Amino acid sequence: MLMAPGYVRDPTPHGTYHGRMSSPAPFLPARPGSWLARGFPAVMVAVAALLALWVAFGRGLVGLLGSLTPVWALAVALPVLALHVVAAALFRRDSLSYPAHAVSRRTMATAVAAWVITACFGFFLPDATPEGMRSVFTHVAGAEFVELGYGFVNIFGVLTVALAVALVLLAVTELRVTARRLRGDPLTEDERLDRLERERAGDDDPAASAPVNPAGRGVVTEDPAARTAGPGTRDAGQPGVDAASGSRP
């Protein structure tokens, strides 16, 4: 095999290439491939719309719509609906990076928790009626429990907004994690340490920076003797032959 002057074949068997290890291939963990996981972003939008109607007008089911209905609709229902829709769009974008086109179980669990809390909020949310502040809860339990309803509505109101914001933040986090996995970036301290060890191993390998044989069959390493040899130097492999002219003296 012909090689460039001043280079000799690497003595390793079969000319195995030794060099710096490349970045690990992207790894995306498996996600549930059920129809629910694949279509969950659309389910999120549909459920969020129903819950927004429940919070704004749910008291109308028992005839308790009052003067605060427009306030609850504009100040609470619409913002919560918007947050859920934004989160659903981000989750959908993230799911397209996975073979199953599905969201994670963590996403589904968080969304279901947000739905339950929002439904409870609408159940305890009161409205100003001619009979006083009334809610679906007071319609079921009795008007004398209105003060108890105030305590619950405050708790569930805070949790409703908090979980809606948490859904958006979770969606952004999922997108960032997926992007880093696609780039092969380490996500945990153990993965970072493993990468550092691989890079150090590549730096310590004497053949890491050696040029590759043009034929693609291995690494060729430079012969120090050939690099310093000048005209008239004899080839060590063939005594008596002039390396520059190829003639015997």
Rounded mean pLDDT is: 77
Question: What is the number of helical segments per DSSP (H or I, 4+ residues)?
Answer: 8
Structural class: mainly alpha
Q: What overall geometry do the principal axes of the alpha carbons give?
A: elongated
Rg: 35 Å
- The order of strands across the largest sheet is 1-4
Number of strands: 4
Distance separating the two termini: 28 Å
* Largest sheet properties: 2 strands, antiparallel
Question: What is the H/E string?
Answer: EHHHHEEHHHEH
Give the fraction of residues assigned to helices: 40-55%
Summarize the structure.
By secondary structure, the chain is mainly α.
What does this protein structure show overall?
The protein has 249 residues and is mainly alpha-helical. The chain has a domain at 37-194. It contains eight helices and four strands. It has helices at 35-38, 40-57, 69-95, 105-124, 136-141, 146-183, 189-204, 224-228, and strands at residues 7-9, 127-129, 132-134, 220-222. The longest helix is centred in the middle third of the chain and has 38 residues, at 146-183. Keywords: Membrane, Transmembrane, Transmembrane helix. Residues 196-249 are annotated as: Disordered.
Keywords:
249 residues, mainly alpha, two-stranded antiparallel ribbon, 8 helices, 5% strand, elongated, membrane, transmembrane helix, transmembrane
Please render the helix and strand layout as text.
Elements: E1 7-9, H1 35-38, H2 40-57, H3 69-95, H4 105-124, E2 127-129, E3 132-134, H5 136-141, H6 146-183, H7 189-204, E4 220-222, H8 224-228
Antiparallel strand pairs: 1-4, 2-3
Helix pairs in contact: 2-3, 2-4, 3-6, 4-6
